[in-house]
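Quick start: what a row looks like.
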Amino acid sequence: MASARHFRTDQDPAEIRQEIEADIAHTRRAQRDLQAAGSHAMAERLRQDTDECLDELAALDAGTWTPKHA
């Protein structure tokens, strides 16, 4: 995941949006692959990761998103 966005304070919101959307796409794809392979526990973990990314995107849209570790 592109969690590096949580360590930078001077990143453009458009770049943050791109990173979050890329994370969503990658985790959804990996989730489907794991489900197809029968790894349902790992697929569930990726679903939770995707939900966290969706929450980040909502916070970005609301103007409340902040880096976690910066």
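That is the whole record. The two ends are 17 Å apart (CA to CA). The chain is about 70% helix and 0% strand.
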